[in-house]
Every structure is written in C-alpha cells, then in structure tokens.
Amino acid sequence: MALSLSNFPSITAIKSTQNPFSVKMSPLTNNISVSTKSTNKKLPILLFDVMDTIVRDPFYHDVPAFFRMSMKELLDCKHPNVWIEFEKGHIDEVELTRNFFKDGRHCDIEGLKNCMKEGYFYIEGVEELLHDLKRNGYELHAFTNYPVWYQMIEEKLKLSKYLSWTFCSCVIGKRKPEADFYSEVEKRLGVEPANCIFIDDRLKNVDAAIEAGFSGIHFKNAETLGKELSLLGINLLKDVQCAN
C-alpha cells in the first residue's frame, strides 16, 4: 500500500526535541507533502548520492598511493578541470588520459581504473539498508557526480539490484550542486521535489537540494541514516502478512 505522507513530522517538530540528526526540510514547506499531480508511485522517492554515501570512494583512499603521492601533491599536480569535464561526459577517456596532469606527464589510465575498481566496496551497513528500502517498495535512484566509470561500480557491486542509475552527471551533462541538475528530477520522474528525499555525504549538495525544494539528509553512516529516514516516516521493517 502506498505510504501516506500526511503524518510526516515537520522540521520544526524535530528541532523542538533537540534531535541530533541532520534531517532538513525545504524552506518552501514544513512537511513532506503529497504532490497535487496524479501519481501511482509510492512516496517519497529516495535519491542517493553514490560515492562515500553508498560506495567507498577510492579516489580519497587509494589513488594518491597509486600515484605515489600525498593527497596534497596529487591535487596540486592534476588538472583542475579535466575530471569535472569527464564527470559531465564532455570529454572521453582518451582526453582524460592526455590531460589528467596539468604538466602533461603520462597517466597510467588502465592502472588507475584497476585501482579504482579494486577500491569499490559498499559502505558498512548501506547495502542492508538499500535492501530493506527496496523490499518495502520504495523507489530509489542514484543522483551522482560520476563519469562513465559508474559502469565499473555496477559491474562489481550490482547497485541496480536496489536502485536505478537515473541521474548520473556523465549522462545528464550536469553536476551537483548545479540547480539545473536537481530540476531534472521533476522532468524525468514526474514528481515534485517535495515528494523526494535527497541523501548525500556532502553538505553543500544537500543544501542545494533543500534550496530546490527537496528534503535532505546529510549522510554520516548507515545506522544514523536509518534513524533519520524513520523520522521521516520511512518504513524499514519487513512487511508481515498475517493469516486470517
């Protein structure tokens, strides 16, 4: 049965109990509310960032060591814009290889890809949470800044068991926290932002989602996320069929 949203707590109510969680509502509304548009979807729809929200990001954990650099050294010598252009799908892997370092030095792109793929793992507890959400009928979508290499994540971890890779920057051509990326949700899903919950480990992306009319959760870990989703009325318990 579709979830009723009319009894969701407002952010004012959450704050009044001095709750330590990071649930945030849009300034446009105090409650998640059902869209006036006709829909058969179970609401709310959940939009998940992927890297360091669902999947460990090897760029911060493994890539500096692959290049035998510190993170500071890597950030200083890599091209400042080429990865962003790759994430948007504006350049291909050949151009990424040629321009990864701003001084033009060789980049072992195949070695980098292998390093990244080996470093992809579910963040502790998140796969179980996704499983519970899927089991209870919630619609889940990736909302991620990532290049075509998201296919390596899918190949290894099979995220599509739980969510759709609907909003990938390399496919849409836009990145968080750009406002027009968030506007793609209503266009593609046919629901208003007020009927969606956005989850991301980067606060600036959550703030941009809230500004666009979504409810937002700043991800810290799976346990806290589960509690925060429960505050918003999300059922994580297995449905029990009672015999008559």
Automatic annotation (TrEMBL):
Highest taxon of source: Eukaryota
InterPro entries, per the entry: HAD-like_sf (IPR036412), HAD-SF_hydro_IA (IPR006439), HAD_sf (IPR023214)
One Pfam family, short name: Hydrolase
Protein name: Phosphatase
Organism of derivation: Lithospermum erythrorhizon
